[in-house]
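Progress report, Aim 2. The chain analyzed during this reporting quarter is listed below.
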Amino acid sequence: MNQTGHPQTLQAVQLGNRNAEQHGLYAGPGRELDPLAQEVADWLMQARHTEPLDLMAAIEIGKLAVLIDRVDTALGDGVVERKGQPRGLIDMRIRLSSRLEKWLRQFGLTPAARADFAKALAGGSFREKIEARRAALAQQQEAGDAPR
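Predicted structure tokens for the chain:
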């Protein structure tokens, strides 16, 4: 407590007081999952290729989407740093977008990731490739063309 302050004007901590929050970018641990982040995660988990183990990745994508939305809102509101520049928020926006793109790629949600996935499915499994190679070698041995 400030010893030289005015005790009569001090108030105890108010539970749930979020007055000082601006964008929530630096919110501490223990916060409940933002409803929008939960909505994004639920939507992602409905994809056919997901499994329950993918939930953490889906939640992370949802959290990143919420943070990006908050930064965009702050930029739209004209939030600036001391020198009148929005540079810090712009840098944060760029970093968040990069992280989101990486997570979306991991989750198979970019056109390139889907194309790679389709290519991998069309190419067959590693086991199928080994079996095809063995069959080709067996044919060569039967024909007397086996490598020596």
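The helical segments are 35-45, 55-76, 87-106, 111-122, 126-142. DSSP finds five helices and no strands in the chain. These observations will guide the mutagenesis work planned for the next reporting period.
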